[in-house]
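Troubleshooting log. The previous structure file for this entry was overwritten by mistake, so regenerating from the original sequence record. Sequence copied from the archived sheet and checked twice against the printout by T.R.
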Amino acid sequence: MRQAVFAASLLAALASVPWARQAAAEVPPQVAAITRVAPSQTSRDDAEQQARWFYSTLTGEIAARTGHPDVAYAELLRAARDMDSATLFEQAVQVALNARQPELALSAVGSWLERQPGSERAQAWRVQLLLGLGRDAEAAPAIQRLISAAPQPQRPETVLALGGMFLGMQDAQRALALARRSLAPYAALPQTQAVLAQLQVQAGELTAGLARAARALKADPTLRPAALLLLQHYKADPARADARLAAYLAARPEDDTLRMGWIDAATQQQRDSVALAQCEVLARRKPELAQVWLILGSLQQQMGQFAQGEHSLARFLSISVPGASLPGLPPLASPAASTPAASAPAPAVASAPAASASATEAPAAAASGAADAEPAHAQAQEAAPPVPPEELAQVYLALSSMALHQGADARAEQWLQRIAPAQRNPAVVLQQAKVLAAQGRSLQALEQVRALPRGSSVQRRRRLVAISDLLRAMHEPKRAYAALREGLRVWGSDPDYAYETAMAAQQAGQTKQMLAQLRGIVKQHPEYQPALNALGYSLADQGRELDLARRLVEHALRLSPGNPFVMDSLGWVEFRQGRLARAQKVLEQAYAGRRDPEIGAHLAEVLWRRGQHQRATELLRECWKAAPQDAGVRAAMHRMGLTF
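Regenerated output below.
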């Protein structure tokens, strides 16, 4: 009885010793992952052995803390052999490592395996130490023994855990070579292929590594490491990543972290249709999360789904701003994703953070309107963090813009009235002017924008851009272009300003000036992707300098892989050069990434030329319904001889 009490007191004392707590933390995570079951305690079942075990541990602790690691090592190893204790063997290994004597640690592991030859944890330690010592010739068979010793169902997880050891090696080429050699008997496992894919990417073999990851994920759609690898390098091949990530999330729909990462990656590549579909799924899965509705509303605005976007942002407010007064919204007429995106660009909501990741129907909750959502989220509202005033102003600004796009100028004005005076920046002034113009008060609208500050160069530039933007909203493209042209002498060397001026020239029908402006940008800024793409597309659209157009667009695509707008330009170049099959393939990929009416119109025209008249007609009709005034859609209708 006294021994039991003594053992209990020693246990309490040991729990307060920093070194003892540190020992468990020092186990490499790869070793812990391979051997998730705690070491056997059967050798310490009786009180006497418990006392001896704690005595040895404390003796080793005292020796280690007083600068005698050799004594601590010897005492722990002697006790470990005497009591056949895996825990003491492991502590001896850690004492040797803390003393920077890995060979001594390996010797302790050898003793451990002599006593417990079937210990997975000892085998994992041996592999880890051999890798650290650079003894690859011994490590390869040790790795194979470790995998073969694991029960058949656990081997895939063991391989993945070993992948962490390989990835931790400093020499990436050496790690890849060793993994290929040691994992060769298990090459059929998708987990092996995922590990090799990670190592290939780490070693600089990006294309081959991602292709291997895609094959591994196809073989096992639940393989998260392969999915993460494709997501981390999404920009390299967005279309392939989309296909494999969709399959992964179909198998593991609960992985919202990866889904959020996919949404973020797709948005960065302007693959808004992909991001929107996944955000709709997330909104159905996590309707209580305010940020999901913020991101969804922003994407819907970008896609021209203004009614759906307004409902989503109102839902965000109903969760994030308790007691917020919201204008009544009309019910949604149809599911969000059933309508292709309008081509008119819309101001974006302030970007929301996404975790650094395909349904087609809109969230049912969004269709019910913000008012219906409020009671369901009473609890979420209580816990919602306060929204920063500047973010709240951006939300109200976006809501006003979307209401105005729907012709609801009174509601657009109501949203603006909710913006605090301190947040009434030039963007808010411009939106107020657009509302005035929509109400027929054009002169007052212009006066409001012209009254913007112009004391500094930044203010003068912002004022000119705002005037031009308002004039475009008032359907006066020539005056809009003239306003921007005034600033070319001052800001013409800035590619953003010059590009915006070139686009204004295009809308004003000044094609010659547009091309000259774009050529100047490309000459001064050869890596400026928007100008490369716009110039290449414009030349292709006019059937001019098609070889140059191809070079420009291909360069733009290298700068922004998977960008649907650049892929649309490339597809149009292919079409103009008579490569119809290639044009269809590229345009199908572009339209999958962004359901933009103009991209759809280009695809419809290629389908028509290839004899697929029914599909071409149906697609063009959808695009026309989404954007009946879009110039690209109307041009395709004219060339195809169709009216709707």
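The chain has 38 helices and no strands. Archived copy saved in two places this time.
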